Amino acid sequence: MKKFNEVKALVAALEADADKFYNKANSAAGTRVRKGMQDLKNLAQSIRLEVQETKNKA
Fold first, then answer.
1. Could you read off the pLDDT of 12-37 as tens digits, one per residue?
2. SS3 assignment for the chain
3. How far apart are CA 43 and CA 52, in angstroms?
4. Is the confidence at residue 58, as pLDDT, over 90?
5. Which residue, 18, 25, 46, 49, is most buried by CB atoms nearer than 10 A?
6. Are 21 and 33 in contact (CB under 8 A)?
7. What is the number of other CB atoms lying within 10 angstroms of the CB of residue 33?
8. d(Cα 48, Cα 31) in Å, to the nearest integer?
9. Which InterPro entries does this one have (predicted)?
10. What is the greatest pairwise CA distance in the chain?
11. Where in the sequence is the domain holding 36, given as residue range(s)?
């Protein structure tokens, strides 16, 4: 559950930069959003593997 909370925190942290990129055309914010989304992807994959492993043990 800890990793799931990290996902929620990461999405919340990216919200301001996403707003700056989409509504104010701030390209540096877009770079931060892209990096954050890559981190999110990696974290989500980690959660998927953990869930699969737990499911297979049961």
1. 999 999 999 999 999 999 999 999 99
2. CHHHHHHHHHHHHHHHHHHHHHHHCCHHHHHHHHHHHHHHHHHHHHHHHHHHHHHHHC
3. 14
4. no
5. 18
6. yes
7. 20
8. 26
9. Hc1
10. 49
11. 1-57
Token reading at 50? 């953990």
Give CA–CA dist 24/26, Å, rounded: 6
Is the whole model's pTM more than 0.70, yes or no? Answer: yes
- Of 50, 19, 45, which is closest to residue 11 (Cα–Cα)? 19
Compute the chain's Rg from CA coordinates: 14
Is 7 a residue whose pLDDT tops 90? yes
In this prediction, what percent of the chain has a pLDDT beyond 90?
Answer: 97
What's the domain count of the chain? 1
